[in-house]
Here is the input.
Amino acid sequence: MQSASTGVMEADTAALREIIERGVNVQASDVHLHTGYPPMMRIAGSMVAMGEEKLENTKLMQQFNAILSEKDREIFAKRKDVDFTYEIPGLARLRGSVFVGHIGVNASFRVLPPTAVPLQDLGLPPQLERFIDYHHGLVLLTGPAGCGKSTTLAALVNLINEKHSGRHVLSLEDPIEILHPHKKCVINQRQINLHTNSCERAMRAALREDPDIIVIGEMRDAETMQLALTAAETGHLVMASMHTTDAIKSITRIVDSFHPEKQPQIRTMLGESLQAVFSQLLLPCTDGKTRALAYELLFVNAAVGNMIREKKTFQIPSIMQTGKAQGMVTLSQTIGDLVRAGKVSRDVAKKYAEEGYF
Here is the structure.
């Protein structure tokens, strides 16, 4: 016999799933639930209301509790926010984030692809395939939230899995988004706060777990950055994402995360171990319905490595502007290509390209 509490939880789960399904069916990238507001969804970068009825704090909390695991409920009770994955069989797998705001409880759900999308299907430059052939060093994938970093990272892991036999790939994620079946590689995916207490702890353990490639879903703090650089210097290929908008800001962000006395050492480590930085943005198109990919690609050669070590990163863009033969390109150059192709307006381009480019 079904208990009353079980029946309530099933009803709460069904109500939440119905809202998410409405968003998935119109190809929303995200579904937002905020106390005091109607359900919202993000389509082509813009937030759109899903009706007019405002959501109530108590009811939302009941719905979230119905889908959170016991462990996630404990984390939420302690920290007032929690990240997790949620799957609706036959519909979608989602990355969820529940958090407390000044009015009440809130959540956002990112719709994830069911499997890794092949690199060539994402409209990314073919030069990215060079990343998987590195045997050591650091590769950074950067961009703001919602620009597709995780999708690009998953595509690269999938390409490694298909082309390189006998490699051990260790992926540290928060949470695990896209599942990678074993193909030619052994792939271990560890979720922060579920399979390990922290990214720092997972990175320290990784150095004893004999990986060929370490994938970091998001590199956030100095401890993880230090361990990533150490791993890159000691014969591992480290691929990591960061919330930065271009190559120079990515390098600066890493260096500035450390105490000034340690920064010269970090610049030296970066100059020697950094292999490439790929930064991506999704810009609204002129049709008002879709978004176009703009990107920047830096390959670290001897000249760039010296600029990093000597605190002359401001000179790197000039190397990128003339480095087309090596596969390099600046963000402003790819935005310019989008403007000339009629995909992005000049007004939009001015907001993202370097000052004076347009």
